[in-house]
Specification:
The complex is a heterodimer. Chain A is 68% helix and 0% strand. By secondary structure, chain A is mainly alpha-helical. Chain A is rod-shaped, with a radius of gyration of 16 Å. Chain B is mainly α. Helices cover 61% and strands 2% of the residues of chain B. The N and C termini of chain B lie far apart (94 Å). Classes of the chains: A mainly alpha, B mainly alpha. Chains A and B meet through helix 1 of A and helix 7 and helix 8 of B.
Chain lengths: 41, 404
């Protein structure tokens, strides 16, 4: 049971970490497919 | 005599009515079938298209003008350069126009993506229909099997002696894979079916919110799935090499059907099928998924089609040569369809895996729950593995439970 819960917690951790890392590296779609002349908000 | 006359009249009237309904294009007979419209499409062409009949529309796609035959600048229509407005639009629509862009790369040179309609039609039609029925059919078949067969019980008395079936790291990797796969499956289904099930019942705003979250979860949980896939491959591949024992197991249906309990090592033939399905389908789903995560960066299909064409396989099975030049958008569309088709197949297999690992077999869940299984269970389902374990110093029974 402990291994199962650890596995599920790791899923959440990896998801949040990958989102933060990819955004930091400039892979979010607004950074890749937009430019300074485009106002997104 | 009268009967014969009636038969002739009936046959003639049927022939006339069949001719009236025939909207197909006249076969090549040396006469231009579009002479009456000056080469433009005819009513027959339009009706054939509306009836979803296969239509050779090269008379349109090839009619894109000819700059070499342009009239002089001072002549009538000379400034058009031999290409009329209609011909310009046709070239854009069929992807043959010479487009130059200062930004955006190859993606931006496609102004009208004709293949997008084929993708949308397939995604909204056969993919949803057959994919959905595959999952429902699998669940239905398992329910029926459960009613007819019931749970696979352990024949012998439980001994109370427990052996370690899977170590913590193995169970962690399994649940990392399982948890991520469930999330990816549910969010993937939400993205595919949201518009037809969530929006009509709960409203478009709810659907938009669900799909927004689903997209985030799907995109980011994917990495956990990939990590887990690598982990289980490294840990279990050596145990999943097929051998002659698997044929015995398969001949006896692994004891799931019938009363025999064929011998097996750590993984039986059924588990090997699951393992290789997860590895092969999972890897292909992961690769096509990464191509979708980084749009237009990874081109998978044009190269693959080139390799397949070289083998002659597509022509052998009647597909003809597959296209080796694809627009960037077509690459993405094929990646999405491939991703979804394989995901449906893998989901169906995993539903069967969940069934046999839970209600379908007594004691099976313990192997991945606590990691400890009763010796009687191990003897019935993995007798060779148990013998090897007991002959090994490290594999001696780790726990002795009271028999109650």
């Amino acid at each position: 049971m402990k291994a199962m819960l650890t596995g599920f917690a790791a899923v959440v951790f990896v998801a949040i970490a990958s989102s933060a890392i990819l955004d930091t590296l400039g892979f979010d779609s607004s950074a890749v497919h937009s430019g300074p002349s485009v106002r997104l908000d | 005599m009268l009967r014969m006359a009636l038969a002739i009249i009936l046959a003639l009237s049927l022939a006339i009515s069949a001719q009236a309904q025939d909207t197909s294009i006249p076969e090549e007979s040396g006469v231009n079938p579009r002479a009456s419209t000056g080469g433009a499409q005819t009513l027959n062409d339009i009706m054939a298209r509306q009836a979803n009949q296969k239509l050779d529309d090269s008379f349109r796609s090839d009619a894109v003008g000819d700059p070499n035959r342009a009239a002089g600048l001072t002549q009538q229509l000379g400034t058009l350069g031999g290409v009329s407005d209609a011909e310009h639009w046709r070239a854009l629509r069929y992807g043959t126009a010479d487009i130059n862009v200062s930004a955006g790369g190859a993606v931006a040179t496609v102004l009208v993506q004709d293949g997008g309609m084929s993708w949308l039609t397939f995604r909204d039609g056969p993919l949803r229909t057959y994919g959905g029925w595959l999952l429902l059919g699998t669940i239905g078949a398992l329910l029926l099997f459960y009613v007819l067969r019931g749970q696979v019980k352990v024949d012998a008395e439980m001994t109370g002696h427990k052996v370690t079936r899977f170590k913590s790291i193995e169970r962690f990797a399994h649940w990392l894979l399982a948890g991520s796969f469930l999330l990816l499956g549910f969010t993937g289904l939400a993205v595919l079916f949201g518009r037809v099930f969530i929006a009509p019942s709960l409203g478009k705003d709810v659907n938009a919110a669900v799909l927004g979250w689903s997209k985030w979860v799907h995109n980011n949980v994917a990495w956990a799935f990939i990590i887990a896939l690598v982990m289980i491959f490294v840990m279990w591949v050596a145990h999943n090499i097929p051998n002659r024992l698997d044929l015995v197991w398969l001949r006896q249906f692994g004891g799931i059907i019938g009363k025999n309990h064929p011998p097996a090592k750590k993984f039986n033939a059924g588990q090997k099928v699951i393992f290789w399905s997860v590895i092969l389908f999972g890897s292909s789903i992961a690769v096509s998924g990464v191509a979708l995560l980084f749009p237009f960066e990874i081109q998978l299909f044009a190269k693959t089609f080139g390799v397949l064409n070289a083998t002659g396989l597509p022509e052998m099975v009647g597909f003809g040569a597959l296209p080796e030049t694809l627009a960037p958008q077509e690459e993405m569309q094929l990646a999405q369809l491939w991703h979804a088709i394989l995901a449906f197949v893998l989901m169906s297999i995993i539903i069967a895996h969940i069934y046999i690992g839970s209600i379908g077999m007594e004691g099976a869940y313990d192997a991945m729950g606590s990691g400890e299984v009763d010796e009687a269970w191990a003897h019935q389902h993995h007798s060779i593995w148990l013998d090897e374990l007991q002959n090994n110093d490290q594999g001696k029974p780790t726990k002795i439970m009271s028999a109650e």
